[in-house]
Design brief:
- The structure is a single chain.
- The longest helix has about 45 residues.
- The chain is elongated, with a radius of gyration of 23 Å.
- It is built from four helices and no strands.
- The protein has two domains: about 50 residues; about 40 residues.
- The model has no long low-confidence stretch (mean pLDDT about 90).
- It is mainly α.
- The protein starts with 5 loop residues before the first helix and ends in a 6-residue tail after the last helix.
- Keywords: Coiled coil.
Length: about 90
């Protein structure tokens, strides 16, 4: 039975490190996406719920800030009900 050289062992460890790093990055992206979805769901729920002060504040904030945040027309069209058609930042 031959033993692995130090170089082979280091290469194997580096491959394992890269694999674990990729998995960590994937988990972090999934967590970030889930946070964004849940936060968006809360905002939409509050807007639909229609409590006067909080819903009005959110609508004003979204109408003011979202057009400048969105960079693609396809994304702007998703929010036309909130910001109106053709609004840009």
């Amino acid at each position: 039975m031959s033993r692995k050289s130090i170089e082979e062992r280091l290469a194997q460890l580096e491959a394992q490190r890269k694999s674990l790093q990729a998995r960590l990055s994937k988990d972090e992206r999934a967590r970030d996406t889930r946070r964004k979805v849940l936060l968006g769901a809360l905002v939409l729920h509050r807007l639909e719920e229609g409590r006067e002060s909080s819903a009005d504040y959110l609508r004003d904030f979204i109408r003011r800030e979202l057009p400048g945040f969105l960079t693609r027309d396809i994304d702007r069209r998703l929010f036309e009900d909130l910001i109106g058609p053709g609004k840009t930042g």
